[in-house]
From TrEMBL:
PANTHER family registered for this protein in UniProt: ALDEHYDE DEHYDROGENASE-RELATED
Keyword tags: Oxidoreductase
InterPro entries: Ald_DH/histidinol_DH, Ald_DH_C, Ald_DH_CS_CYS, Ald_DH_CS_GLU, Ald_DH_N, Aldehyde_DH_dom, Aminobutyraldehyde_DH
Organism the protein comes from: Streptomyces rhizosphaericus
Catalytic machinery residues: 256
Domain of life, per lineage: Bacteria
Family assignment from sequence similarity: Belongs to the aldehyde dehydrogenase family.
Name this polypeptide is given: Gamma-aminobutyraldehyde dehydrogenase
NCBIfam families documented for this protein: PRK13473.1 (NF010000)
CDD domains given in the database record: ALDH_ABALDH-YdcW
Keyword Oxidoreductase on entry: yes
Domain Aldehyde dehydrogenase: 19-478
């Protein structure tokens, strides 16, 4: 007997719609490996319709007083909170994430972030107005950019969608957002919730549109003539494509493209505490986190003690089904990701040593064991490239300069951490580490008020914070004669 797959649909101008040409893709539950839904594979006609809706809605949304946009975002946050269990179940089915951890670790920050941007809507900043030329007054107007084309990733489908739509809407932009083709379900549910709030408040429905589809759909969005800005969280390859496409008509681009976070552990570190925190920060969400504590650099004098404690922590870390309360993480997101992680381990050089894990778990779904690999060298593939799986690598260093050189010696530059009791060393390292974030004696916490974003090939533009909000605005100088 075949069970009918649930049908997810695009959300354009307040209506749920199939793709104009009826094409679909299957949506798989990674905990079972089985398809459970279909989603539209949107093409040019769908993108055109969504962009037209967002463009038509823009003037009314832009011209609201900020307090009205704040009110809408606060209502959206309340509605998310009221429907949290539905969001959790939807996200968990589509990603295999543990239900309890999604409830505790993802929903509260997401809602807080929407509320943060609701407040930011009323803090449109411009530096001092004044007379910088005799008889003339200058002021700054901070304005929305326009329609934003946004492409979200599959690792935190809900939270990354929040990071995109919340600052954009707060600043007065309208949005066409595309979730990853593997994880569209929660963004489609967002559409229902956000659409409900917009309708209740009498705002145009085209303020928020969801288009499902693949890379080609994303390209059509970014190259479309309507959006003034393209924002993507994804791989470096995807970011280069988006920047290339956007360059054709000089759209503003906002890129968050992953990381390879160094975790620099000095000899004076409290080893048991560091191991406990680092293993959670490395394995949480199956390591599918652009800030994951994935690349440990440990002082040679404590290497053996540290590695044996980390391997023990890995062996004690559980992966498994979403409803198992003891698991730290669920499956990898999709079959390609499982092949990617497996490939890195299969290709390890002879000098590497797998201290824990290094294999798939079970034969259903895409689970992978918590893995620790030691003995690695700076040029090794697994040190230079993002694995995006539950794999922590370990290298050694002999002094601060070598630690800095190894830490910075990759193309990514998103997040990093330093573990030491020596305050001056922590401060020196914070200056020297060439990453958008440096944590000291911790790794992975985020707050809505602080920026998230990288340097080098990790992209440009910030998520979260007043900086992220400003990325979705433009400034205009207005000068008036006093005569
Ligand atoms: N911990 C959230 C990181 C966002 C990107 O993966």
């Amino acid at each position: 007997m075949t069970t009918e797959l649930r049908r997810l649909r695009n959300y354009i101008d307040g209506e749920f719609r199939d793709a104009a040409d009826g094409r679909t893709t299957e949506v798989v539950n990674p905990a079972t490996g089985e398809p459970y839904a279909t989603a539209p594979l949107s093409g040019a006609a769908d993108v055109d319709a969504a962009m037209a809706a967002a463009e038509a809605a823009f003037p009314a949304w832009r011209d609201l007083v900020p307090g009205e946009r704040q009110k809408a975002l606060l209502k959206i946050a309340d509605a998310f909170e009221a429907r949290a269990e539905e969001l959790i179940a939807t996200e968990s089915e589509n990603t295999g994430k543990p239900i309890g951890l999604t409830r505790d670790e993802e929903i509260p920050p997401m809602i807080d972030q929407i509320r943060f941007f609701a407040g930011a809507a009323r803090m449109l900043e411009g530096r001092s107005a004044g007379e910088y030329m005799e008889g003339l007054t200058s002021i700054i107007r901070r304005e929305p950019v326009g329609v934003c084309a946004q492409v979200a990733p599959w690792n935190y489908p809900m939270m990354m969608a929040v990071w995109k739509f919340a600052p954009a809407l707060a600043a007065g932009n309208t949005v066409v957002i595309k979730p990853s083709d593997t994880t569209p379900a929660s963004t489609v549910l967002f559409a229902e919730i956000i659409g409900g709030v917009l309708a209740e408040l009498g705002h145009p429905q085209g303020v928020f549109n969801v288009i499902c589809g693949d890379r080609e759909t994303g390209r059509l969005m970014v190259e479309h003539s309507v959006p003034a800005m393209a924002s993507i969280t994804g791989s470096v390859r995807a970011g280069k494509q988006v920047a290339g496409s956007a360059s054709k008509d000089l759209k503003r681009v906002h890129l968050e493209l992953g990381g390879k976070a160094p975790v620099v552990v000095f000899e004076d570190t409290d080893i048991p505490k560091a191991v406990e925190d680092i293993s959670v920060a490395g394995f949480f969400n199956a390591g599918q986190d652009c800030t994951a504590a994935t690349r440990v650099l440990v002082h040679e004098s404590i290497h053996d003690e540290f590695v044996s404690a980390l391997a023990k922590a890995a062996a004690e870390t559980k992966t498994g089904a979403p409803d198992d309360e003891d698991v730290l993480y669920g499956p990898l997101n999709n079959a390609n990701q499982l092949a990617q992680v497996t490939g890195f381990i299969d290709r390890l050089p002879a000098h590497a040593k797998v201290e824990a894990g290094g294999h798939r778990v079970g034969d259903k779904g895409f689970f992978y064991a918590p893995t620790v690999v030691s003995g690695l060298k700076q040029d090794d593939e697994i040190i230079q490239n993002e694995v995006f799986g539950p794999v922590i690598t370990v290298q050694t260093f002999s002094d601060e300069q070598q630690a800095i050189s190894y830490a910075n010696g990759v193309e990514y530059a998103l997040a990093s951490s330093v573990w030491t009791k020596d305050h001056a060393r922590a401060m020196r390292m914070s200056k020297a580490l060439d990453f958008g974030c440096v944590w000291i004696n911790t790794h992975i916490p985020l707050v809505a008020e602080m920026p998230h974003g990288g340097f080098k090939k990790s992209g440009y533009g910030k998520d979260l914070s007043a900086y992220g909000f400003e990325d979705y605005t433009r400034i205009k100088h207005v000068m008036t004669s006093l005569g």
